[in-house]
Each structure stands twice: as C-alpha cells, then as structure tokens.
Amino acid sequence: MSECDNCGRPIKNKNSTHSLCEPCKLLSERTPPIRMTPLDTDDLELVFAWRSNPKIYRHFRKQDAPLNWENHLSWYESRAAGRHDFIIHYDGRRAGVVSITTDDEVGIYLGDFSAHGNGVATAALKWLCKRFRYRTPLIAEIDENNHPSKRLFERCGFQQCGCDEEWVEYSYDP
Question: Class of 2-172 per CATH?
C-alpha cells in the first residue's frame, strides 16, 4: 500500500514511481493548475493570516474576530483523526482551504482573492466530495448572506435541507 502523491490518501500501488488516488487523477485531468495537499505546519502562518481576515471570517459560524496565534496552534494540534484539512494549490501557489470534519461537515474558503472566478473552489469542492463520498451525506452550513458560497455548493450537487435565522444547511448525498 502506498500514498497518493497529491493528497496522501492510502492507495494500492500500481508499480509506478508516481501514484494518484482516483479523485486526484480526475482533478489533474480536468484542471491541471489545481491540486490538494494535506494541511501541515508549513501552512499554518498563511492559514492564520487568511482566517484573521474579516472578509473571510465574517462568513464563519464559530469565529467573529481575528484569531489568536496560540489558539490557532492549539486547534491544529488537537484536530480529531477523522478531520481532514487540505490546502488548495492553484497555478503554483497556495490559494485556500477545503476541509471535512469528523461530523462530515465540509467547508471551503479561498484566501487568495485572485483565485476567485477561476473555477478553483468548484474543482476543490467537487474533489472533496468525490474523495469522501463514502462518508455521505456531507453537510455544509452557510451564512444566509453568502450568496457566492450558496451557489458554489448548489453547483457541486448540494441541496438545501434546512435553515435557521442566519444559516442555511445543505446536504450532499449523490
């Protein structure tokens, strides 16, 4: 058993020097400038900066102010084994994060605003759904006022399944 060269997922080795899991093969065939890698310590400063930007965190359910570095490190070190966070790479640079929690809740944001409008978030979210299709239904909670995010999730096959005053819940179950 070997690991995917892109996302680190265990795969059966086909006796080649470079191996990709099926979702990563499809991603690389469709959108060559986009790839995913697991979040690691080298990414923490950049993710901290992104998550401290009010243009990004204003749409987060559990964050309403810039982060504290120690809390950010603590979050990273205490993530549950079933949680997966991936850095989205676009055109050779880190552009955002896509993740799935142990409760099968997915989230995505692009910290590099120049990546907006290029299909990056759509490709990344579709990749995550394919990669974790065995965990469906996948869930997303989206700020009622975040219309681009709602359109993204709908474009990727999520359907609205509930809402409260400020949050819309979406489900993906192909």
Answer: alpha beta
